Amino acid sequence: MLTRRRSRVIRHRVAQAVPTLILVSLVSFLILHIGPGDPALLLAGEFPTEESIAEIRQLYGFDRPIWEQYLSWVGQLLRGDLGLSLQSREPVMDLILNRLPNTLLIVCYAMVIAFVVGSVLGIAAAARRGSLVDRVATGVATIADALPYFWLAMLMVSVLALDWQLFPATGAVRFLEDPLGAIWTATLPAIALSISGIAQITRQLRAAMIEVLASPFVRTLRAKGLSPAAILWRHGLKNVGVTLLTVVGLVFSGKIGGTLLTETVFAIPGTGSALIQAAINKDYFVVQGIILMLAVLVFLVNLVVDLLYAVLDPRVE
Amino acid sequence: MSAPLLRVQDLRVAFPLRDSGDTLKAVDGVSFDVAEGETLGIIGESGSGKSTLGRAIVALLRPDAGRVELAGEDLFALPAPQLRRRRHAMQIIFQDPHAALNPRRRILDSVREPLDIAGEGSPAERTARALAMLARVGLDQAQAARFPHELSGGQKQRVNIARALVRRPRLLVADEATSALDVSIQADILNLYLDLQAEFGLTYVIITHDLAVAMHVSDRLAVMYLGRFVEVAPAATLEQAARHPYTRALLAAEPVALPSRLVTGARMPLQGEIPSPVDPPSGCRFRTRCPVAEPRCAAAEPAWRQVAPGHRVACHLVEGAAC
Amino acid sequence: MRRLLLILRDPGAAAGMLWLGLLIAAALAAPWISPHDPLKVDLLGVLQPPSATHWLGTDDLGRDVLSRLLHGAAPSLFSSIGAVALGMLIGLPFGLIAGYLGGWVDAAISRGIDALLSFPTILLAVGIAAVLGTSLTNAVIAIGIAFSPGFARLARARTLAVKQELYVDAARAAGAGAWWLLTRHVLPNAVTPVIVQAGLLLGTALLAEASLSFLGLGVQPPQASWGGMLARALLYLERAPDLMIAPGVALLLTALAFNSLGETARRWLDPR
User: Fold this and answer.
1) ipTM confidence
2) Shortest CA distance from C174: residue in chain B
3) In this structure, which of A23, A36, A191, B217 has its CB flanked by the most CB atoms within 10 Å?
């Protein structure tokens, strides 16, 4: 049952979410307008003429005041309209919805890997502090933090896919058409993508578990003769849950950002590779649409985490 | 009688509570005067609102209602820049001598700071004045070059006193200014206060929970309970003829510093905890812990009564002239 | 000073310092110590393995890999430092103002920080770089802006804590105005964790710049950059997998060195 205090915290979070979400949309909108000079010039391509610029200005309403442009953009947005790609004339929303499943598959897969590996490493390191296990876990985290994961991805493609032919080197399989094939194909990208998450989770969990083990409560249990592993198993799990919850948002955000590179290396037709292509081709509405959708996704995941946290965390009381 | 140096009228300070929307009424209608050169002691338990009162007196806190007048000037009617220029006249010493000093600045720089802010004199003159004031409170030039963590608690409180006095204030508020110190050092610092008062003609407001300290240094005492004063009297009178049940309970609870004839009298130990200032009791606020409370105590707030010259009490059970 | 020397006894920190020292020297001296012109194309000698003339071999256009590696050090190093400095320069004042003033100013800035933190760093950087135009300077600006909300949030939290300190009240009682309090009491006592954060972000900035150059949104070819070299290596992954070794190792070692430097700075400035 939710107490008064918890429901107040939840109401507060939700109330804060609305202005933040509006600002997220505003930032995405303004990205097109922060460039030096006229957005119409940006859209007019390599060889702009007076007429083509004027035409574009009229077509996209750049001659109107900026807040009016924003409001009409939001209006279209709420109807699911993100404009058309300047390259393919395809609706940006269709392009995103087409590609998002590929992106979400590797992101979720990478989250699972990161949480499983990170939890095992973090807990093992805390339980046997200073041991070989701890040193290995800390070393993995240190290297994972410094590893350019697009480079790791290239190494894996080179060795595991091209030399040993264990995995397909590039591309993606639609999950709904062939779930097993999709997961198999997504394995290398997901491993590459999971690396920085493994470092974050290992480090956070190790620190949190060491704190639990040093608490007076646990010291009493140890004095009674329980082993650290038994204490961790019986009393640490709730702490593990709360600690993992606090890093979900952070790790998810990192994974979404990581898809830009991972999808490029593995030639996966997802939103990340589409964003890079659009950025290089100056296909601004695609850039804007993808940035907005991915940011909203990250925002929503963080909001859910915050709300869960308000429900679960004993310290909120 | 000449106009008082400090006049506080119906002062009220409330803090909104973040989650519930209730307010915590820390100071809830306090009025008093302090004459030039006088020392007023304010006694109360923790939670009585006495520290908040002290901060409001030196205008570190803006009250929700009421006035604070220094030498006839309403501080909170002043525009911010003017108020800043008046601040040198009223200074405060805090309870924690360490936390009151910026850990990254040398002692000399902290003591010089009020002069630097005012821009009085050349830098060399300011340094000389700061060093002179440090010497006056018993610290030498070598100590002036140190950082706060290199000094003892008593030395740090001397630094705070030097900083407060460097621009020659008229009013000094000491908020539990000795209670964080060792007992042996407390006496030194208290005597320093008394010497400085004589030397600089200071007016003191001494805020403390320590009856013995308050009796030792004060001319008059005010007893504070849950945001209000309940009894005000000359120190000697209060010691011998306290009338409010709360004051008497405080006196009875005091173990050693009081003459034995008071201790052997009827003991009325305080029971329970001080109620929450968010939702104070109706009528007389002390009634929930008062050994002699009557039904009328819950019904109405007691009015102030004068029981002797300069001795005022707010209690239904005390007879005296209304005032 | 003694504490710094003690920390340098840690072999990881010492190795990191050594690597960074060598790298900075190499970056500055690249025009003189490079064995070849990093831009010189030799279509008769493409994708050569390491040899006496080309210690690290040649790339797909016959350019000397070692020379390109040395010339790529400067943009990598200085853009990471520049991006972190810019992020701090933007974020710190916003955080200070929000924390110090409170009220609606704080609420507005905090919502802005929340909104910007909803964008993954690299996502925001790619978006900004795309609109500003592809160049190293714009990549640095993009990464700096993307870092700024993190700095602002940290500075705000520290300011809120320091504002409560008694010495701030003491200075206020002495007649100090807002500017005096901010510059002499709040900022000096709030800034340490922000500097520590800057140190810890250097490695992230390095990888972010390399990522943008890898994606074609940073340093533009034919100028040498480690990220750009990896992009070429990706094109020739099947024919010449060795091309990715040198720039990748350089990035990994430099990021490790930055991270250990940041960790050293943390232990030195913020002992807990």
Assistant:
1) 0.88
2) B114
3) A191
